[in-house]
Write a structure and sequence with these properties.
With about 350 residues, the protein is an alpha+beta fold. Helix content is about 50%, strand content about 15%. The chain folds into three domains: about 70 residues, PAS domain (Beta-Lactamase, 2-Layer Sandwich), CATH 3.30.450.20; about 100 residues, 2-Layer Sandwich (Beta-Lactamase); about 90 residues, Signal transduction histidine kinase, dimerisation/phosphotransfer (DHp) domain (Helix Hairpins), CATH 1.10.287.130.
């Protein structure tokens, strides 16, 4: 059964065909043979010309009637298939252990990298100037940083991961924190419609302390939303102050315009009142020039006429500007001779 001709064994000393390098029980076998003791299931490898064989040897010593050792009587059993199967199983187990070791190393490395990234992400979350909240499609909190609840003036227990945000929304709506919604249903309807259309939402939440928090809501792929909270109390205060100042400036401008219009109306009326008697003075001086006057008198009357006409021109110019400011003067486009 070994595949080796038996003539190669007969008459040969025990172990002559055994490969000592493939003989794990060599010392046990040698001790038993030297002591003429029995041995059982000693595994040995017997090399052959083409292929060797693994054999289990068992033997009992034989003695004559005088107790003289004559040799061994025993049997060998071919266990090549079993040994090969055990060897294959051992190699497979070793390969599996090596693969498991490599896999464990890979998993450990990736776990470490994931832990580092998670730690980094947590640090980024907590060092953000804004509050951050992530909710799923069922309105449950997936993640948030500490500023999310610090900007809320609500108990931290309301902001635990896994909690539903409806109690938070209800508390704010009841306080009138949102100008755009008076009920929870109205609040959710407005935001769900915008998120379903893929549109971001920006709203203001006013707290009892007077703080103003800007909420930026953006839809998540697969449902839910990412919400950032920014404290814009100072910005809103400056904006309100700017709006108040702008209103004051607008009122002051209107008052200035009204005052300027009143001035223009006054000047227009006064210029008209002054021009009427001036026309009388100039007219009478012109009539005086047509009478018998001495040379000195004629010169004096002529000065009165010239001065009056110049003063009338000035009054007419003032009246024109006053009419322009008062909106009472119409400018008409007409052709004229530039050289005339």
């Amino acid at each position: 059964s070994t595949g080796i001709d038996r003539t190669q064994f007969i008459g040969q000393p025990m172990g002559c065909r055994i490969d000592p390098e493939e003989f794990p029980q060599h010392e046990e076998f040698q001790r038993a043979v030297a002591a003429h003791e029995p041995f059982k299931d000693i595994i040995v490898y017997i090399p052959g010309e083409a292929k060797g064989a693994w054999v289990t040897l068992s033997g009992k010593p034989v003695f004559d009637e005088n107790g003289v050792f004559l040799g061994y009587r025993g049997a060998g059993r071919n266990v090549t298939l079993r040994i090969e199967a055990e060897t294959a199983a051992r190699e497979a187990r070793k390969a599996l252990e090596e693969a498991n070791s490599r896999l464990e190393a890979t998993v450990e490395e990736r776990t470490r990298a994931l832990r580092e990234r998670t730690t980094l992400l947590d640090e980024v979350f907590e060092t953000m100037a804004e509050g951050l909240l992530v909710i799923d499609a069922d309105l449950r909190i997936v993640a948030r940083n500490s500023k999310a609840w610090k900007f809320s003036e609500l108990p931290e227990e309301s902001w635990q991961v896994g909690a539903n945000i409806l109690p938070i929304v209800d508390a704010y709506v009841r306080r009138g924190a949102y100008d755009q919604a008076t009920t929870v249903e109205e609040f959710l309807t407005q935001r769900k419609a915008a998120l379903a259309a893929g549109k971001p939402i920006v709203s203001l939440r006013r707290l009892d302390s007077g703080a103003v928090i800007q909420e930026d809501i953006r839809p998540r792929t697969g449902g839910g939303a990412v919400v950032t909270f920014t404290d814009i109390t100072d910005l809103k205060m400056r904006q309100d102050q700017l709006e108040a100042l702008s209103a004051e400036l607008g009122a002051a401008k209107d008052e200035a315009i009204a005052a300027n219009r009143a001035k223009s109306d006054f000047l227009a009326n006064m210029s008209h009142e002054i021009r009427t008697p001036m026309n009388g003075v100039v007219g009478m001086a012109s009539l005086l020039l047509e009478t018998n006057l001495s040379t000195k008198q004629h010169e004096m009357a002529q000065v009165i006429v010239s001065s009056g006409e110049n003063l009338l021109k000035i009054i007419n110019d003032i009246l024109d500007f006053s009419r322009l400011e008062a909106g009472k003067l119409k400018i008409v486009s007409e052709p004229f001779d530039l050289r005339a």
